[in-house]
Amino acid sequence: MQYDETKFAEYFAEHPEDISIDDIDMARLPRHISCIMDGNGRWATSRGMNRGEGHKAGIVALREIITACVRMGVDVLSAYAFSTENWNRPQSEVNLLMHLFAKTFIDELPLLKRENVRVEFLGDISALPQKTREVFEYGLAETKDHTGMILALAVNYGARAELARAARLIVQDVQSGKLMAEKVDEKAVAARLYTSDLPDPELVIRTSGEMRVSNYLLWQIAYSEFYVTDTYWPDFDRWGLVRAIASFQARDRRFGGLTDSK
Ligand code: IPE
Ligand code: IPE
Ligand code: MG
Question: What is the pTM of this model?
Answer without folding.
Answer: 0.96
